[in-house]
Amino acid sequence: MPKNHHVCHNIAIFRGHLGHISCKLARPSRGWLVPKFRRAALARLFWVSALSLVSFSLASVSLARLSFADSLVPLARADFPTAPKEQILLGRDLFFDPLLSGNRNIACATCHHGALGSADAVALSVGEGGMGLGKNRRGTETAPAHQHVPRNAPALYNLGADQITVLFHDGRVARDGSAPFGVRMPEGNALERPAVNLLAAQALLPLLSPEEMAGSPGENPIADAVAAQEIRGPSGAWAQLAARVEAVPAYRARFTALNGSTAPLHISDIGNAIGVFLAEEFRAINSPFDAYLRGDTEALSKAQTRGKTLFYGKALCSSCHAGALQTDNSFHAIGIPQIGPGKGHGATGADHGRAAITGDINDRYRFRTPSLRNVALTAPYGHSGAYDSLKEVVRHHLAPRESLMRFDPARVALPALNGPGQTAPQTPPAAERARIAAAITLQIPPLTDAELRDIVSFLHALTDPSSIGGKLGAPARVPSGLPVDSLLD
Ligand code: HEC
Ligand code: HEC
Q1: Where is average pLDDT lowest: 88-92, 388-392, 413-417?
Q2: Is the dihedral angle over the CA atoms 80, 81, 87, 90 positive or is it negative?
């Protein structure tokens, strides 16, 4: 491994632990405020972190001392926003309503269904134009889907927690005090009004994606506005969508009751309702691991306890998957194989990840560290969905270059774009695969098969049983009268 990669890796670890410890000292406060530390706490934080950095560079003997499991702060209800029940239920209807898609044929829930681990159980979704749900979803012969969505639809568990500061695989939505209303959004998509939480801001973006929800130019006025880059303002795509919702009397009446006003709906009303629904529906803080963190010493099995000790100790997982939510809200290159159409960055099928947002070449092939809450419910894994079991994706971490280079794309079955059946994914050229491999900064010490099994057992202890199938679940019908996605179709 080149020297500079080693340094990067250690810095990543350093940052991971810094984030982790700060989690212990101060929970981020509600709203967009950056947590403030007292001078003494800050100094302590520096020294503890500096020591961690030094010990990591030394022999593995010192690693046991760095287990932070005992200092983990359990997640609490107070880490999540509260909202009126009426707003949550409005958000649920909007989340399940195809009305928000340009061609009125796909809802948020199509790709993020509670019965499918808040995602869609496939590596890459068939978005706009498809039919069916989950593994049964496909394009149709009469209206073939244009392409697969380029990245795996992520699970939405606990993303409403205050501790989550970045969203998307590349972090293109992030808390940022210097951005309008405290949220960094992609260029041209800045918020027009405040968002109640990060999820409420994020919800405004899938509406604009041609392959996810908007459709193609010529098909509907929303898609046309998107193609013309008219998003904000009185005639932009957002205003047109708000007007659509406004025109449905049941929505109008419920928003009037909620807002105490008949002022015309704004897209932020819709985003805010969806944001509070997501924070509520996908809050998952009652796993065996949570019970353990709250003091129940019997909550984890023996194998899970060993796995937890490895995860937060010598296996170094928590250097990136830090804290009780298992994320450092940061980005790392771990060489998950690229499959599918890619994001159009450079070579055919390429996806440069974080670099496309920061413009920094050093960020190439880095992706956000996902939280691992409910991870046993959310296969397939990685930003491209290349691995379909926990064992495979964890094994990938142990030898990422080898795993990337010998990856056989033929084993990933993508839903067909033009009718029933499956199709093999596209893969980028060999030279691109070599670039992804060269960027890897992940280095895990060797683990035995038994240790790997224990870690996977621990990952199962992160499942909150109340998440299975969703909490409120799908509404029986939505105010637009359009069909609601069901697994039974
Ligand atoms: C066609 C499938 C599809 C539809 C429809 C869809 N999404 Fe997504 N969603 C995705 C994919 C794929 C990503 C990841 C994209 C990326 O990171 O570049 C994503 C990312 C997200 C994220 C960020 C998750 C994370 O871990 O950071 C949230 C939140 C989300 N979607 C909510 C929504 C909402 C709300 C809607 C409806 C307004 C919606 N999605 C519609 C596929 C979909
Ligand atoms: C250098 C940082 C780093 C370390 C160390 C690390 N991971 Fe990861 N992990 C990531 C990133 C980044 C991703 C997402 C990569 C992507 O989407 O391309 C990920 C993905 C995962 C996933 C898939 C989650 C999903 O929803 O797709 C699992 C499971 C996982 N890691 C477990 C582990 C375990 C167990 C360990 C310790 C053996 C570990 N990780 C160590 C950074 C790290």
Answers
A1: 413-417
A2: negative
pTM attached to this predicted model: 0.89
H helices of 38-124, where? 39-57, 85-96, 108-111
Domain parsing of the chain, residue ranges: 1-66, 85-119+154-281
Length of the chain: 489
- Identify which ligand lies nearest to the alpha carbon of 170: 1
User: What ligand 2 atom has the least distance to the C-alpha of 366?
Assistant: 12
Cβ pair 386, 373 in contact under 8 A: no
The CATH number that domain 85-119+154-281 falls under is: 1.10.760.10
Number of H helices, E strands in the chain: 16, 7
| Ligand 2 pocket member 386 (CB < 6 A) | no
CA pair distance 415, 132, nearest whole angstrom = 11
| Ligand 1 centroid distance, CA of 277 (Å) | 15
As to burial, measured by CB atoms within 10 angstroms (0-12 exposed, 13-18 middle, 19+ buried), residue 361 is exposed
Q: Where are the alpha helices (DSSP H) in 161-266?
A: 198-202, 221-227, 237-246, 249-259
Provide the 3-class DSSP secondary structure of residue 23: helix
Kind plus residue range of the DSSP H or E element containing 458: helix 449-460
Q: How far is CA 293 from CA 71, 429, 437, 466, in A?
A: 9, 46, 37, 18
Give me the sign of the Cα torsion angle 210, 213, 214, 219: positive
User: C-alpha angle 188/192/194, rounded to 5°?
Assistant: 130
Cα 445 to Cα 318, 335, 347, 431, 449: the distances in Å are 13, 17, 33, 28, 13
Which of 143-147, 334-338, 368-372, 401-405 bottoms out in mean pLDDT, i.e. has the lowest?
143-147
**Which atom of ligand 1 is nearest the CA belonging to 199?**
29
What mean pLDDT value characterizes the chain? 88
What does R_g of the chain's alpha carbons equal in angstroms? 22
Q: How many other CB atoms sit within 10 Å of the CB of residue 426? A: 17
Residue 245, phi then psi, degrees to nearest 5: -70, -45
How far is 478 from 460, CA to CA, in rounded Å?
34
4: which 2 tokens?
Answer: 């500079």
